[in-house]
Amino acid sequence: MAESAWHERGVTRRALLSTVGVGLAGSAGCLARGEDSGLEGEINIDGSNTVLPHSAAVAEEFQWQNNRVQIPVQGSGTGAGFQRFCTGETDIQNASREILPEEEELAAENGIEYLEIEALLDGIAVWANPENDWCDCLTVEELNAIWESGSTVETWSDVRDEWPDEEIALYGRDSASGTFDYFTEAINGEYGNIRTDYSESADTNVIVRGVRGNQYALGFGGAGYYYENEDDLKLLGVDDGEGCVRPTTESIEDESYTPLSRPMYVYLRRDQLTREEFRAFARFYFEEDETDDEGLTYTQTAARSVGFYAIPEETVEESSRELEDTIEEVQ
Asked: Which residues, 6 or more positions from 2, have their beta carbon under 8 angstroms from its beta carbon?
């Protein structure tokens, strides 16, 4: 077997994100040294910009071991990706939230049947500028007051009297993002409930740069982006009534970081499971990574390699069983 690609070469979230726009297959020159297993074909992946590094890592490792299979990975956003997936344009959909009822209807209208797999865990982090020396933590109620539709909060002193009377510059994900959907539901009570006067972006790196450039800024995004930019951001705690908790491996995997810890998903088209290379790639998520000392599967080691968090073993077993049951049904 060829050596593990990401462990061997130290692949990071940032390196994998650099492949966006050209697709992972477009950067596969380094994969030419991988192994020819006899499998060949192309598998198209789109969806969550947040989940993209995980999917790209799994795809890169699979291509390392099957170097005649091409797997372009794009990150149009969960909502935009579902529009393509539900009309049959793509084979696999990454999602940072579950599919919505209207998306289920679109898939049904187009005869697209799918399997939902919980693949990794993440936390949505709340960031401030490193020069912010007054705020270390926000309660869920304060976050709601800042971000809800129709909010009257304009300055930091509107949140707490002792904080600066300076306007808060707000940065967050756009409405095509599953991170947007999850954040608005968890903090404001329903999908899409958010004020309209914030700087929105489809690219979390733009949010990072915005918060980095303004002492009075506040933003949110996947926790992994904070750990890639620790010198440029200040990580805030979130108090859900049990004290301030920051998103870490421990607080996300033990579910104490609430309400902003979340599972993230991979959606597989059932009809594509009749293809040998597609079945092999789907099963690859749940195969043991032989280079991992803990005996984790590829979906778990990929998650940790690019700054996410591993799903528990019972979820691996359940998802793997559902995949095998589906494969048996479609063949």
From this structure: 33, 34, 35, 64, 65
| Cis peptide bond N-terminal to 130, omega within 30 | no
Determine the pLDDT at residue 1: 45
Helices (H), the chain: 5-9, 13-17, 52-65, 78-85, 101-109, 140-147, 178-188, 204-212, 223-227, 249-253, 276-284, 298-305, 313-330
Distance of CA 85 to the CA centre of its chain: 17
**If 0-12 CB within 10 Å is exposed, 13-18 middle and 19+ buried, where does residue 140 land?**
middle
User: Torsions phi, psi of 181, nearest 5?
Assistant: -60, -45
Instruction: Quickly tell me which residue has 């979230």 as its tokens.
Output: 13
Which tens digit of pLDDT belongs to each residue from 270-279? Answer: 999 999 999 9
- As beta bridge partners, residue 93 has 46, 267
Distance of CA 195 to the CA centre of its chain: 23
